[in-house]
Amino acid sequence: VEHLISKIEGDIFMLRSICLSLTVAFLVGCSSAPKQPIMTPLEIQSLQTRDYEHSKEIVFASVTSVFQDLGYTISNADFQTGLIYAESASKSNKVLKFLIGMTQVEKTKATAFVEQIKNKTKVRLNFVLVQKESSAYGRDDQDDTALLDGKLYEAAFERIDSAIFLRVGTQ
Predict the structure, then answer these.
(1) How confident is the model at residue 139 (pLDDT cuts 50, 70, 90)?
(2) d(C-alpha 138, C-alpha 131), whole Å
(3) Residue 66 and residue 44: Cα distance in Å, rounded?
(4) How far apart are CA 49 and CA 95, in angstroms?
(5) CB under 8 Å to 152, separation ≥6 — which residues?
(6) Each residue of 57-102: pLDDT tens digit?
(7) Region for 118 from its dihedrals, namely left if φ exceeds 0, alpha if ψ lies in -120 to 50, beta otherwise
(8) Concatenated DSSP letters of the chain
């Protein structure tokens, strides 16, 4: 009887292992970076850049404010260089962590370059999806994918337009 119970327990363990392996394969196979359109460098620059007829001070402050409004944490902002670095909060795949001890974390990094050219201020935004994985055995992997969705940039620039309008209106 003990031998039979031991065999059944072994079969149950093997069945659980197979189910876990299939679940992990399914979850990992389903999580991939968004499909990116094929764009020329000039198209990318056009997507990511806008000109404003306001001072660098107003535009720089507005871009910084919009990043914060969108939930980003400003990691560095330097008015002299015009560079703003920000990143979103991280999202973790808790199912993978629970099932197999593998961590999978995702966040978005954003940068802005604000420069004064004659009587205009130029803003170039860049959003990058950062996906990190690490296993219980110390293996680390990271994929950085430029986000080139026109709707994302249009929404960000619309918010910057509004922030500039409000900032100019209060001066």
Answers:
(1) confident
(2) 16
(3) 21
(4) 39
(5) 127
(6) 999 999 999 999 999 999 999 999 999 999 999 887 766 566 666 7
(7) left
(8) -HHHHHHHHHHHHHHHHHHHHHHHHHHHHH--PPP-----HHHHHHHHEEEESS-HHHHHHHHHHHHHHTTPEEEEEETTTTEEEEEPPPEE-HHHHHHHS-EEEEEEEEEEEEEEETTEEEEEEEEEEEEEEE-TTS-EEEEEEE---HHHHHHHHHHHHHHHHHHHHT-
Per-residue tokens: 144: 């950085």
